What we know:
Elements: H1 4-12, E1 20-22, E2 25-27, E3 37-40, E4 50-53, H2 57-75, H3 79-95, H4 97-108, H5 112-133, E5 140-143, E6 146-152, E7 155-159, H6 165-179, E8 182-186, H7 193-209, E9 216-218, H8 223-232, E10 238-242, H9 245-256, E11 261-265, E12 271-274, H10 287-299, E13 311-315, H11 319-332, H12 351-367, E14 370-376, E15 392-398, H13 405-408, E16 415-421, H14 424-432, E17 436-437, E18 439-443, H15 447-454, E19 461-464, E20 478-479, E21 482-483, H16 488-493, E22 496-502
Parallel strand pairs: 7-8, 7-10, 8-9, 10-11, 12-13, 12-18, 13-16, 15-16, 18-19
Antiparallel strand pairs: 1-2, 3-4, 5-6, 6-22, 11-21, 14-15, 17-20
Helix pairs in contact: 1-4, 2-8, 3-5, 3-7, 4-5, 5-6, 8-9, 10-11
Amino acid sequence: MGHPVTHSIRSRLDTERRHFWIGGAWRPPVGGDDTPHTVVADPTGREAVGRVPRGTARDAGEAVAAAREAFPVWAATDAGVRRELLAAVAEGISQREADFAAVISAEMGAPLDNALHTQTRLAAEVFQSYADLLADHAWEERIGASQIVREPVGVVAAITPWNYPLYLIAAKVAAALAAGCAVVLKPSCDAPLNAFLLAEVFAETCPAVGAPGGVFNLVTGPGKVVGEALTSHPEVDAVSFTGSTEAGRSVAMSAAGTVKRVGLELGGKSARVILADEPDGTTVRDLDDAVRLALSDAFYNSGQTCTACTRVLVPDAVYDRAVALAAEEAGRWELGDPALAGEHLGPVATARQYVGVLAHIEQGVAEGARLVAGGKAPPARTPDGLGAGHWILPTVFADVTNDMAVAREEIFGPVVCFLRYRDEEEAARIANDSIYGLAGAVWCTDRLRAERFARRIRAGLVTVNSGRFSVLAPTGGYKQSGVGRELGVHGLDEYTETKTIQW
């Protein structure tokens, strides 16, 4: 009997994609039937989920040409029409949320609850948030004798990763469309099928609201081919990229030749600081809750979250107890079939990532860190019939120092490091001693102390205790974690130019 998710997808959806969505139509690649395809692997180790065309620079060029043609029409379109399109896309995602969740779960291994609630519904929420934002957004302001005008930047290339595929597409595409830009999307080759479902939603909604077909275009292919063709294309005005810091450097260099705007959300090695409740540093109230929250954050989505706080800093006096609690808590996490709902971990999404995470775990042990839980999953811990998948147990390292590779390099798997500190000055120094600055977190029962410490962390997003995520608040990085912001009005501004008209 086939895998339930794979069987469900293939009985209802087209996962054998042979065309790109360009200029409001499904177009074959320029290579026709001879175009190679990329196989979308199943991270649980079963048969392939589907396949998509491996596009070329010429395919990318056709998509850019379609976006360029649509741009002046869309830029001149009333904000009310933009609102209609964004709201219609949000509704289209919601109406097909079961399909989106099934595809995402199959292609990148997120458990079904994750794929539905976070991966899919959050994407619909982002599209709707920009529809709502346009209701009263001020595009102009007066400063003295000058009129300040915000205008769309132009054609945008959006290049997205596999870990939160649909949500990260939404964060870029919705903001760009709200600003009046036309978009060419290149999703990850490892999780592209959800993007084709999104193109189907645009195929229905664009004609319904009177939007030009080329306002949203989709082309797939390797980053070194299609991605580079987009980032270097003279008719692309802005690039928005989410991925590794290494890849982000390549994107920035490629785009530099035409001096286009580049937004980057890159890697992270964020710190979560558990503060003592007493000045002497010997007491942490609710330490159990603090550790449980730390592991939930680090292990969610199998650790494949760029903002995850994978360095946990604990006062020296309670460090041993915190590590013991972490080892116990990690042991409660189960690996499970991503086709099923429930609070379990799915597999790591790709074979390359799986090998990399295991190599980091081995390196941590070699450096002298103490492995107190986790590692490569033995057959007895893997879901029945799925032993060939990319399974890694929730992993906890203790006795980690901040000069170790496991504390400095982004692992992007279910691996968390516990570090000790003597006082708040040392905690702040350790937290900020990183090339990254994407996120951070603070735990303390004293809200004012927690906020004061949060202000000391050099990162774009800092969570205090169990703070709630908002699609209206900006995210983005300091240092080598990126340039620019996404979500809300700050994300909208990334896709606009500022013009001054002087009288």
